[in-house]
Amino acid sequence: MSKRLVILGAGESGVGAAILGKQQGYEVFVSDGKAIKDNYREELESYNIPYEAGQHTEDKILDADEVMKSPGIPEKNELVKKIREKGIPVISEIELAYRHKGNSKIIGITGSNGKTTTTALVYHICKVGGLDAGLVGNIGYSFAKQVALDPKPLYVAEISSFQLDDIQTFRPDIAILTNITEDHLDRYDYQFRNYINSKFRIVENQTENDFFIYCEDDPVTMQNLGHFTIKSNPLPFTMSREINRGAFIQNGKMTIAASDEKIQMSIYDFALKGKHNQYNTMAAGIAGSTIGIRKEKIRDAVQTFESLEHRMEPVSTVRGVTFINDSKATNVNSTWYALESMEKPTILILGGVDKGNDYSLLSELVKEKVKAIVCMGTDNRKIHEAFQHEVAVMVNTGSAREAVQAAFHLANKGDIVLLSPACASFDLFKNYEDRGEQFKQAVREL
Predict the structure, then answer these.
(1) Does 124 score more than 80 pLDDT?
(2) Is 110 among the annotated ligand-binding positions?
(3) Which of 99, 144, 233, 385 gives 20 to 30 Å between its CA and that of 321?
């Protein structure tokens, strides 16, 4: 009897899991409460995988041996509650991929901020170092689909807390935790503790043969390290002291001591600018060194890395006003990092779906660097309440085009217009990429 695997959600991770499940002999059924995008529907049909869209047929779903739910579906969902009540095991896509990855190694990266940049940089280091690696997970390509269709000896995986919530045996050989700040509290009953526990699950199955890379300067990580049984080898990174194992930056020089070779390089040679990116670079450098990439290759990779779309991406300068797309800043801390690196008067475009944000974290930086705020969202009350005393001008807009035009109108030559919303995008846009694309299009039309 083949195992019956039901997949909730037919997006990138759901369809990837369906393809892998089918390949591994599961009886697969995919159910999505909304419409399924054409490309995903075509993939399911080409593999003869039964699916439904726009509905969930409960008796088909509750008949599962195991359910893989898309990371976007919360525990509060009525159907998920019924699945839990029946005692049907729920797994995430990374769990399914892990079970079928064979002898391949995994570098898993999680954290509230910096994880996408760190993941992309680790992957770049692997490629420059001549390793055949797959870039998977939250960053765009399904881990399960990669395992099914194009298996690699090494996977560099960006992993969200939602994906970690439903693991059982998933174990990365190298785990990176960039930092932990309040994010997604709406999904964790507004309990920061639940979110912290979720992030630390990345190390829960690790053994003494594995490595755990973390930020010694991140207060939340350090306050909670002792609450978990961690068997793997610690490799911290810091800017506050010299350490023997891990990485540190002092006097403008990064030192990595994770393998037999010590690596040293000037932070002024890093392709990525800003203090937060120095942390990301240390984390990625340790990972590269730990898997045995030569120091020349790591240096080369750190110097040649190109930053990501929608993450502090320079769009264009129009009549002396520079536009920067940081649409990927979906929480307050990401926006804090963006503002921290601003060196000119800034018009800040903020807003979207609030995930229980505490904007007070930004008030000092806003007072110091921001001359006007343009709100872009359906509900901007909290932003107005938070910054009414820090900024003289605040404007409400209802689209990317309106926001860009308003910001341009408020800007003088030499100013920066920064889209760094601190919120999710689902009120006006499909996702943060769509928000970033519409912003860039509106800038081009000025």
Answers:
(1) yes
(2) no
(3) 385
Q: Is 115 annotated as a binding residue?
A: yes
Instruction: Give domain 95-304's CATH superfamily.
Output: Mur-like, catalytic domain (3.40.1190.10)
Q: Is the dihedral of CA 152, 264, 242, 268 positive or negative?
A: negative
- Range of lowest pLDDT (72-76, 186-190, 237-241): 186-190
116 marked ligand binding residue: yes
Rounded to an integer, what distance in angstroms lies between the CA atom of residue 117 and that of residue 96? 25
Return the closest-CA partner of residue 326 out of 304, 354, 346, 355: 346
Phi-psi region of 369 (alpha: psi -120 to 50; beta: other; left: phi over 0): alpha
Is residue 272 within 8 A of residue 307, CB to CB? The reply is: yes
Q: How confident is the model at residue 314 (pLDDT cuts 50, 70, 90)?
A: confident
Alpha helices in 134-234 (DSSP H): 143-149, 161-165, 192-200, 219-224
114 a known binding residue? yes
Where does the pLDDT of residue 242 fall: very low under 50, low under 70, confident under 90, or very high at 90 and above? very high
Cα 148 from Cα 100, distance rounded (Å): 8
Edge to edge, what strands does the sheet with 346-350 contain? 313-318, 321-325, 416-419, 346-350, 370-376, 393-397
pLDDT at 140 over 70: no
111 is in an annotated binding site: yes
Domain at 313-444, CATH homologous superfamily: Mur ligase, C-terminal domain (3.90.190.20)
Residue type, 15: V
436 assigned to a ligand binding site: no
pLDDT at 308 over 80: no
Q: Which residue has the tokens 């009120």?
A: 427
The CATH architecture that domain 4-91 belongs to is 3-Layer(aba) Sandwich (3.40)
What are 251's two structure tokens? Answer: 């006097």
The domain segmentation of the chain, as residue ranges, is 4-91, 95-304, 313-444
Is 113 annotated in a binding site? The answer is yes
Q: What pLDDT is stored for residue 245 in this prediction? A: 97
Tens digits of residue pLDDT in 418-443: 999 999 888 889 889 999 999 999 99
What is the pLDDT averaged over residues 31-35? 94
Instruction: Please compute the mean of the pLDDT values over residues 247-275 and round it to a whole number.
Output: 93
